[in-house]
């Protein structure tokens, strides 16, 4: 029950958990009979069931420490900020391997603290459902480049400060080039929309 975050007063309780993408599906009924459970299973297998996203409350002062504390409800807003490079440690609290990453992540945040365009953050994936496809096991280190496109780059290198900083710098250089193209595409799109709007207004005036 602890592993699946089911509290004692919620039992008996049925849910489906996809351990590949860590999505959770709750039985949408308090009545537990064979037919209802069968319908629930079929809805999942047919792709009709909707996942239930769980989030801890946003901690007070979550962004005041070097390592920002994210939860389910603010992860995407922070990670997909087009003006920030965001490096996130996805961990699970019950894993010793995950917890062993904390000192390194604190050290990384300290090393990058003077760079206002870089955010170092962490989120407990065992207490918050992640509304994005996660690959591999935890802990997982994912970098979100400063782009309008929602891109995630999974770090697979050595877990040392110099290698992590080098990875951040490398991805920022890539994103900078891509951002130039993004900005140009956005400019062309806005101009095209203005031209289209001007044509429509002209046609209305002629009518």
Can you give a write-up of this model?
The structure is a single chain. The chain is an alpha/beta fold and 207 residues long. The protein folds into two domains: 8-45, no CATH class; 67-180, Glutaredoxin (3-Layer(aba) Sandwich), CATH 3.40.30.10. The chain is built from five helices and seven strands, in the order ββαβαβααβββα. The protein has a five-stranded mixed sheet. The longest helix is centred in the C-terminal third of the chain and has 46 residues, at 161-206. 18% of the residues are buried. The model has no long low-confidence stretch (mean pLDDT 88).
Please supply descriptive tags for the structure shown above.
single chain, 207 residues, alpha/beta, Glutaredoxin, 5-stranded mixed beta sheet, Thioredoxin domain-containing protein, Thioredoxin_domain, Thioredoxin-like_sf
Would you kindly provide a brief summary of this structure?
The chain contains five helices and seven strands, in the order E-E-H-E-H-E-H-H-E-E-E-H. By secondary structure, the protein is an alpha/beta fold.
**SS field, number of helical segments:** 5
Mean of residue pLDDT values: 88
Strand order of the largest sheet: 3-5-4-6-7
Which regions have little confidence, pLDDT < 50, spanning 5+ residues? none
Order of helices and strands: EEHEHEHHEEEH
CATH classification class of the largest domain? Alpha Beta
CATH superfamily name of the largest domain? Glutaredoxin
Q: How many domains comprise the coordinates?
A: 2
Determine the structural class based on helices, strands and strand pairing: alpha/beta
Rounded to the nearest angstrom, the distance between the terminal CA atoms is 68 Å
Which oligomeric form is depicted? single chain
Structural Rg: 22 Å
Number of strands: 7
Output the CATH topology of the largest domain.
Glutaredoxin
Largest sheet: 5 strands, mixed
Protein name: Thioredoxin domain-containing protein
Organism: Xenoophorus captivus
Domain Thioredoxin: 44-173
Pfam family, one: Thioredoxin
């Amino acid at each position: 029950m602890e592993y699946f975050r089911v509290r004692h007063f919620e039992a008996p309780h049925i849910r489906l958990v996809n351990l590949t993408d860590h999505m959770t599906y709750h039985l949408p009924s308090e009545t537990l009979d064979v037919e209802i459970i069968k319908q629930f299973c079929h809805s999942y297998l047919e792709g009709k069931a909707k996942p239930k996203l769980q989030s801890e409350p946003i901690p007070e002062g979550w962004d005041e420490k070097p390592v920002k504390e994210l939860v389910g409800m603010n992860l995407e807003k922070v990670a997909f900020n087009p003006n920030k490079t965001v490096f996130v440690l996805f961990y699970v609290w019950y894993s010793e391997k995950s917890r062993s990453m904390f000192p390194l992540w604190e050290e990384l945040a300290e090393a990058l603290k003077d760079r206002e365009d870089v955010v170092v953050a962490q989120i407990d994936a065992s207490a918050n459902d992640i509304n994005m496809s996660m690959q591999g096991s935890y802990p997982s280190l994912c970098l979100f480049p400063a782009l309008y496109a929602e891109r995630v780059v999974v770090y697979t290198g050595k877990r040392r400060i110099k290698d992590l900083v080098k990875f951040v710098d490398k991805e920022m250089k890539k994103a900078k080039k891509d951002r130039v193209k993004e900005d140009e595409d956005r400019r062309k799109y806005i101009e095209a929309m203005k031209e289209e709007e001007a044509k429509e207004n002209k046609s209305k005036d002629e009518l």
